[in-house]
Amino acid sequence: MRKWIFVVLMLFTMVPIAKGQGCAICTKTAAGLDDKSARGLNGGILYLALLPLGIMGTLGLVWWRANRKTHD
Length: 72
Prior knowledge:
This protein has one domain (2-71). The chain is elongated and about 55 Å long. The protein has 3 helices and no strands. The chain starts with a helix and ends with a helix. The protein is an all-alpha fold and 72 residues long.
């Protein structure tokens, strides 16, 4: 139970940090682009985010499987 309380508290403390992120230069650049270029910029951002999200997802899956086997 303590573990869940800790996780929830950590999530609530991370929310203001996550909302503060953003690049003003990227926003101004995207505002001045046409539709095709803006889609390319968004695609590039998603492409760059794919590797870290994949690593975190893989580590989470490995942790979940290891944790699940110890409790069975």
